[in-house]
Design a protein that fits this description.
Two copies of one chain form a homodimer. Chain A has about 325 residues and is of the alpha/beta class. Chain A has two domains: about 200 residues, NAD(P)-binding Rossmann-like Domain (Rossmann fold); about 90 residues, UDP-galactose 4-epimerase, domain 1, CATH 3.90.25. Helix content of chain A is about 40%, strand content about 20%. Chain A contains ten helices and 14 strands. Chain A has a seven-stranded parallel β-sheet with strand order 3-2-1-4-5-6-11, with helices on both faces. In chain A, strands 12-9-14 form a three-stranded mixed β-sheet.
């Protein structure tokens, strides 16, 4: 089985690549290295079944050439920066919507029929139903990131119907674990290294978040593509827990043995379009036999340990 | 009040323009005339408060220049051809998604905060709930057209949240009436002119459709923008009736005094992505005091009468 992984040098992508190689797949990574890290592919590069192509999904010609002779595409390449969407409103549209269309067209050019897609729990906006199932009430988008990912999902689903493809769409909560490179924990850790005596927190700290460990996330992706049989298979991926941002902070400062003053920016939302609670009902994914192995606190600690052992990631230039 | 109407030379757009002018608005139409007709703007052009600009929404510079000094945008410009989406998969993305993004950016450049958008009942895909309300279960897209309009809705909603805009989003059933230029009735009428003795019908004729008269549609748009007060206001627009394609055919052949043989292509769907039933719950729009005045059969007859009186439309080159 030949897998093509866009964004395969990224946090989730590179963890997926390692697991695909372990399972015997031949793997091509296609990544523009804008946020991906070649260091994440060091063990993969030692394998003969692995190939890396530096390329951008917005370069349709290069993408189409690279995609030939693969059986399945894991399309993880994206602008994953939710927070600053309003500062560069074209970026999400380009990278998450038009980029996804390019991937679909390249697949169509080569008759490749299976695609897995990293969407987001942000597509639920501020859902009326919590925990939120996949068939929650038709949401209203609150962020450019969520909007661009919803558009990607919609294009993929329409291609399935129109051209006979099969899709596996994953709506993630935030992901933690080894090779974690952005988000709450990263920001908090970086701040505490710079000034161990205080921590600036966006919002009031009561925003509730659910986190999933990257290995649990990759498990679910593999289970889904191997067992799900609908034309369009949509799965929430999260844990049956949530924590407040304040709980995350408590775990982090305890692990680092610090007791900083906490300065809250205030308000229910950390930023425009931030959802006070993304907490997903994951029964559908569990019904395929998957279950997460890491509790949120274990994931937080594993993430911190990895960050402490990989301080180069703190000073990288994206 | 200065209104900017993209697609204002089209079927729905030009009817809206006439009504806006009657209500005292100053109106600018921006239309690339790819399917719009200058003849639809003949009465509008006689008014001093009217201005026409030939331009494409994909020409961001021209659009941005034209949009200055307006109070509200009615964004109706779109690729409205649902059926042939799979034959030109970029067209919906360009005209309905990227075009909408251009409109939003142009609005943002000028601080224009209010936008009305013509979406479609096709965004519900094949809904589990019929009649389908606005908060129906999160749908799976089945057409590139629906996907591209959903993406447009999502961008608009995210811009409302991110930049303080206010939106009025309308999910239409099929629209009938004066200046109707494409769709079932048009195709059937054109066929029967060419060969009165037989009619080719896509699908099995049992596809159920709801139709709304264009004047009822324009009424609803005006009521909504004048009365709805949420940040993102989403309204289904349809009638509380539906008919089968076979019923439409009966009305048409009766009005034309013909009795053609009917040749069905067969199957539940007329084309890939066709929905066997788009039938919308319109309570939300009715709660603002709107109600449709035309029954579907009256709308069908009015459409036929207009087509009979305007045979130039049958031989136009789009």
């Amino acid at each position: 089985m030949k897998a093509f992984v866009t964004g395969g040098a990224g946090f989730i992508g590179s963890n997926l690549v390692d697991r695909l190689l372990q399972r015997g797949y031949t793997v091509t990574v296609y990544d523009n290295l804008s946020t991906g890290q070649l260091r994440f592919l060091e063990s993969a590069k030692a394998q003969p079944r692995f190939r890396f192509i530096e390329g951008d999904i917005l370069d349709a010609e290069r993408l189409t050439g690279a995609l030939a002779e693969h059986d399945i595409v894991f399309h993880l390449s994206a602008n994953a920066d939710v927070r600053f969407g309003t500062q560069h409103p074209r970026r999400d549209l380009d990278q998450n919507t038009i980029g996804t269309w390019n991937v679909l067209e390249a697949m169509r050019a080569h008759g490749i029929e299976r695609v897995a897609f990293s969407s987001t729990g942000s597509v639920y906006g501020e859902s009326e139903v919590v925990p939120t199932p996949e068939n929650a009430p038709f949401p209203v988008q609150t962020s450019l990131y969520g909007a661009s990912k919803l558009a990607g999902e919609a294009l993929i689903s329409a291609y399935c119907e129109g051209y006979g493809m099969q899709a596996f769409i994953f709506r993630f909560v935030s992901i933690l674990g080894e090779r974690y490179t952005h988000g709450h924990v990263f920001d908090f850790y970086k701040q505490l290294l710079a000034h161990p005596d205080h921590l600036n927190v966006l919002g009031d700290g009561h925003q509730k978040k659910s986190y999933l460990h990257v290995q649990d996330c990759v498990d679910a992706i593999l289970v889904a593509v191997e067992r799900a049989s609908q034309r369009v298979n949509i799965f929430n991926l999260g844990t049956d827990e949530f924590v407040e941002v304040n709980d995350s902070i408590a775990t982090i400062v305890e692990a680092l043995k610090l007791s900083p003053n906490l300065n809250y920016s205030g308000g229910e939302r950390g930023w425009i379009g931030d959802s006070p609670l993304i907490y997903l009902d994951c029964k559908r994914m569990r019904s395929l036999g998957w279950q997460p192995r890491y509790a949120i606190r274990d994931g937080l600690r594993a993430t911190l340990t990895w960050l402490q052992q990989n301080d180069w990631i703190l000073t990288r230039r994206d």
